[in-house]
Amino acid sequence: MKPRAVILLGAPGAGKGTQARQAAQRFGMPHISTGDMLREAVKRGTPAGKAAQGLIDAGGLVPDEVVYGIVEERLSLPDCAKGFILDGFPRTLAQARFLDRLLEKQNRWEPLALNIQVDQELLIKRAAGRLTCSLGGEIYNTYFKPPKKEGVCDVDGGALIHRSDDNEETIRQRQAAYQKQTEPLIDYYRHRPYFHSVDGNAEPEAIARQIWAFIEDHDHLQVSGGDRTAAAQRTDGKRDSGRDA
Ligand SMILES: [Zn+2]
Fold first, then answer.
1. From 53, 60, 121, 150, which residue has the greatest number of CB atoms within 10 Å?
2. How far apart are CA 71 and CA 100, in angstroms?
3. For the whole model, what pTM was predicted?
């Protein structure tokens, strides 16, 4: 059986990290986020990690070529032998194409791509309404989970703080930047056999169930050649009817 790659896509605030962590635990696969991967490579002093370290020390950004090296190193480790869940990579069309080439080289199944789709206004309220307790770190939201008394934590009476970069304007800019960068990426996966759009407006537990069901549905497939197409058509008809909504 070829090992499976699972890719989680979704806007900032869509809950990708949480969902990736839970799915990884459930299916016994490593959860690989871009930030963790980069930190690990630097810490382990791998060739790509050393290159990245040099650039970070010089105050520069880590370019795609170096990130590609880090991804390849990470996905070649033994814990990825049976599959893995990617969170935050790929982020651009170029990165998606690189990943396809790498997965082919590693003789893996075509990846499952899940897009956690959340209404933009909901994402903005989640982020802009967010309040954090200055004492215990409890999290509130002026729209969805207001404290009993304005500005005061229910648990320990601490003052509630609103992060300055959580204002609506900044959040809208962040969302717009995400959309511009990843819309082409989602289009790239949308027309592939194993794409699934997840309703991310639901509660986290309901989102998790959608993700797990999709992974489980595709876990048994011994995919190759014609089987791949047939399986894809079955999936399209059954599950993805609302994905363009
Ligand atoms: Zn508190």
1. 53
2. 12
3. 0.79
Cα(135) to ligand 1 centroid in Å equals 5
> Which one of 4, 74, 125, 130 is the catalytic residue?
130
- Residue 114 reports pLDDT greater than 50: yes
Superfamily of domain covering 4-29+82-120+170-239:
P-loop containing nucleotide triphosphate hydrolases (3.40.50.300)
Ligand 1: distance of its center to the CA of 139 in Å?
8
Strand order in the sheet with 4-10: 31-33, 83-87, 4-10, 112-117, 195-199
Give the chain's mean pLDDT.
Answer: 86
Radius of gyration, CA atoms only, the chain: 20
Partner residues linked to 6 by β-bridges: 85, 112
Instruction: Name the strand (E) or helix (H) holding 81.
Output: none
Read off the amino acid at residue 160: L
Q: Of these residues, 16, 74, 125, 126, which one is catalytic?
A: 16
Q: What are phi and psi of 79, to 5 degrees?
A: -70, -10
Q: Which of 94, 114, 87 is nearest to 212 (CA)?
A: 114
Q: Kindly report the backbone phi and psi dihedral angles of residue 198, in degrees, each rounded to the nearest multiple of 5, phi listed first.
A: -100, 135
The beta-strand segments (E) located in 81-177 are 83-87, 112-117, 130-133, 139-141, 160-161
